[in-house]
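Figure 2 data, in text form.
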Amino acid sequence: MSEEREEIVAMLRRAYWMEVETVMSYIAGSINPDGVRAQEVMSSLREDIQEELSHATQFAERIKELYGVVPGSMEFEAEQSFLQPPEHQNDIVHVIKGVIAAESGAIEFYNEIIQATEESDPTTNDMVIAILRDEEGHRRLFEGFLREYEDARTQA
């Protein structure tokens, strides 16, 4: 495997793990919160789980297509401390901010992949651009949730 391909595969492996970790955290975030006001956020996370899992699968398939090996669970190292369950299960703002941080991190890293593959790997480039669009939509939705909760706090 060429050095450039190895670098792309390494980036795809990191993206794969980011998506897998996000799925785990979104499952917790879609179940743990308490309160009526949390229901819309929990419902949105349930929907996002399938999309994030699809992203992980796409990254895994591209790793294989580039002659890489999709990593197994023993290689997993958690990084998303901001997506851990809050101390109080009615702290839905903590969950929302964690989602925004996760999506922002993905957007930043996926832009790096897009730059790295722009001229050398149009297939990976196109795939990551499409995934990036999804992540930007997720972040925008949760930024809206956050504004709504912050507005409610200032009006209380």
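Caption note: The two ends are 60 Å apart (CA to CA).
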